[in-house]
Amino acid sequence: MAKARQFSSMLVFFWLNALFAGLGLAADDGESILHTEISRQNSQSLLWGPYRPNLYFGLRPRIPKSLMTGLMWGKVETYSDFQNSIRYTCEQNEGMKGYGWEEYDPRRGGIQTIHDIENNIDLTTSFVKVPGGAHGGNWAARIKGVLNEDALSAQRTMVVFYVTQEGEDSELRASPPDDEYGYESDVRLTGRSETLGNYKLVITKGKGVQPQSDHDLSTIRGPGQTVVQSLNYPEEHIWQAKPILFRQLKEGVDWLVENKYDAVDPPPPWQVYQLANRPGTGNVHIVQKVFEGDFEFEVIFSSESAGKELTSDDITREIKGASESFADRFSSVFPLKAPFNAEKYKKFGRSMFSNLIGGIGYFYGHSVVDRSYAPEYDEENEGFWEEAAEARGRNQQALEGPYELFTSIPSRPFFPRGFLWDEGFHLLPIADWDMDLTLEVVKSWFNLMDEDGWIGREQILGTEARSKVPAEFQTQFPHYANPPTLFFIIDVFVDKLRKTNGTLPAGREHLSQDEFLATASLDNPEVGLQHLRRLYPLLQRQFDWFRKTQAGDVKSYDREAYSTKEAYRWRGRTVTHCLTSGLDDYPRPQPPHPGELHVDLLSWVGVMAKSLANVAGALGHAEDADGYAKVLTAVERNLDDLHWSDKDGCYCDATVDEFEENALVCHKGYISLFPFLTGLLRPDSPRLGRLLRLMGDEEELWSPHGLRSLSKRDELYGTKENYWRNPVWININYMAIVQLYNVATQEGPHKETARDLYSRLRKNIVDTVYKSWEETGFAWEQYSPETGKGQRTQHFTGWTSLVVKIMAMEDLESKAGHVRDEL
User: Fold this and answer.
1) What pLDDT does residue 782 have?
2) Can you give 548-580 as a three-state secondary structure string?
3) Residue 816: pLDDT band by 50, 70, 90 thresholds?
4) Tens of pLDDT, residues 82-107
């Protein structure tokens, strides 16, 4: 089977082009068909996955109204602990020592470990896919539980595999049981849907001891077999697995009470919570197992269109092959550089990256949007934030959609949904691994764009996603922007395309199907250019929307600037927050004023202009490229004219004082660095030296654990919510490290200073994230600049995973040492 996965990507390329030539098609037509064929293969390769990342282990395809599964478990040693011990959705504080993917490739699968210390068990969930047929091929999961050293040797663990099938024309039926009590052998579910065709889902008997009971209840409920309850629920409720399970369990407990099974002669707890066996047809199937001690079983999905069903030996072989493939590819894609090339850093890196890419999910449902376009939302008057709050209180929102989104999430327990400004950072490592997967995510986001160019900054699609978000944060507003980090990925893609010349790089002549598809849009540049052609008008539309809806006022306040157009203000500001900027509580001018100008937003517009100039150039649109280059020049000039403070030696937000005159408000920190962080300062810029001094000053931004978000000298340092007023954030530190590297590797007056800061900051960030991961088992949302401890959201494997790219960056300290030795 492993050999069957291998084929020559070069042969496929030539075969398709020969086919097109034989059909008498023009080159453009042929290349378009090639694009279509690669897209089809990508859709099949990426159809199935653990795309329910809010669950500890939840599988589904990238199809609305589809088959979905989820794993639940919990110990059943007492009558009272089961409700608190059951695990299903990822939660912040559930007694976990750590959990997540140790290795994962979305095209093949991987291995996840879950260290549930409160349930005294370590779980391993392995998942593999085998391509074939018209419906994404076959897949299998192996679920293994091993009691830890604190468990009783005979601890009973209940495991539930929860299966649902949506869709009016679908069907899912459980096979008849071995006897009335349940299944001594495998459980077979047979299903059919319009999108998946005919399929089977087998939950094997597996390995492990079934608990026995001589209680009278055993004449009614079997002594430990697998049981199935097949149910029908309204589709809008079937995602609520735990409430449905508890409802069914309560039904069984109530029956026991009614039939006078009481405390005088109680059944054992595991038997009290054993479901009655009622298999049949339904859109919900609860497959319940109880084990005494360690256990292992498999879940095998077989598509009728894929042919041969997987066996246990096949699964073992595929798990081994996927593991070996992942290890080889990780070393190749992310060759860790000194001082991070020890084995412990490789293990750390594999875990961080696997949890990032294993956190990709598919979401489908309606979004809550306020399209009232209330005049208060124009934010033109002083006190605008109060007027806007009053308008929001009118509850003019409505459901829109349904929409679908394929996205990498920031955190499985706390932020299991799509965030626009996070996504660009998430995709930077993923683009190194699998460019075509990255493009699938990018296209999914741009498919959400409305006709004006707006994309909601937070995608809370469907009732399941909304259940994790307070009502006051669910509504999206079409005048709210968010940092456009997806343009980072467009730049990465254009840069990779430019480095190809239409031929495969050496060593890539014979690749697996997965490796071929991961870079198909790069190895076949015309396919990549077609992606750009389709994205280009969407990128332009979003750029135009930004400049229109977030425009700032230069003329009304006699501001002196190179351009009267290139000045911007985030909408959605309040006295305490600017959520739309992504930097939430970072200090801004007080009170808010309609004449404010925000230096970070102007920098982001520069990022977009620079990226669009690159895309236009790659597509041969010289006039467009020239126009965007002029906008970029205006942005760069206005950053100095409107936002530079000679007095403070940094960039600052601008506001209007009591005399209606321009005034700079400087809170030194991440905001002050934004023109540098976004790559808009040249290595010989006269401003750069002062910014580097600010970064390296231990009384300002420098700490042993990374750059602080706000200067220690600022009066608001560490105050109130303290979200962006002190902590170290990895995404911003990554931006700093990249730009420091760029300055350190080019000739200029600040080369040596940048090299020193780069080397020390790179080491500090990696050490901080690694040590916290080693101590707690988790990556964290942010880190303390004083102690280095992770804080806020745990299992934050979104942009904190950028540490993998940081470890793979050049070790300039060692290089400088070698040069000194040679001299």
Assistant:
1) 98
2) HHCECCCHHHCCCCCCCCCCECCCCCCCCCCHH
3) low
4) 888 999 999 998 889 999 999 999 99
Residue type, 619: L
| CA 94, chain centre distance (Å) | 22
Average pLDDT, the chain: 92
Report residue 745's pLDDT band, with 50, 70 and 90 as the boundaries: very high
Give pLDDT tens digits for 376-423.
Answer: 999 999 999 999 999 999 999 999 999 999 999 999 999 999 999 999
- Which two structure tokens, joined as six digits, stand for 613? 């100039």
Stretch 492-503: mean pLDDT: 85
Q: At what angle do helices 343-357 and 312-333 cross, to 10 degrees?
A: 110
Burial pattern 210-237, b for ≥16 Cβ within 10 A else e, equals bbebebebeeebbbbbbbbbbbeeeeee
Q: Which two tokens stand for residue 743?
A: 């300055």
The reply to whether the predicted model has a pTM over 0.85 is yes
Residues forming the active site? 584, 781
By DSSP bridging, strand 644-645 and strand 650-651 are antiparallel
Q: How much of the chain, in percent, has pLDDT values that exceed 70? A: 93
Under 8 Å between Cβ of 135 and 43: no
In tens, the pLDDT along 442-488 reads 999 999 999 999 999 999 999 999 999 999 999 999 999 999 999 99
> Can you read off the two tokens belonging to residue 99?
């959990």
Residue 136 DSSP code: T
CA dihedral (213, 219, 224, 229) positive or negative: negative
Query: Quick one: average pLDDT of 350-374?
Result: 97
Which H or E run includes 449? none
Phi, psi of 162 (to 5 degrees): -105, 125
Ordered DSSP codes for 705-760: TS-BSB-TTSTTTT-TT-SSSS-B-HHHHHHHHHHHHHHHTS-STTHHHHHHHHHH
Torsion of CA 371, 373, 376, 381, to 10 degrees: 130
H-assigned helices in 127-272: 241-258, 269-272
Contact residues for 373 (Cβ-Cβ < 8 A; gap 6+): 478, 479
Which residues make Cβ contacts (< 8 Å) with residue 818, sequence separation at least 6?
Answer: none
In angstroms, rounded to a whole number, what is the distance separating the alpha carbons of residues 745 and 446? 35
- Phi then psi dihedrals of residue 785, to 5 deg: -70, -20
In sequence order, the 6+-apart residues with CB closer than 8 A to the CB of 242 are 72, 86, 88, 89
Instruction: List the one residue out of 329, 340, 326 whose CA is nearest residue 809.
Output: 340
User: What does the DSSP assignment read for 654-709?
Assistant: EEE-TTS-EEEE---BHHHHHHHHTT-S-TT-TTHHHHHHHHH-TTTT--TTS-BS
The pLDDT assigned to 710 comes to 98
The rounded percent of the chain whose pLDDT value lies above 90 is 83
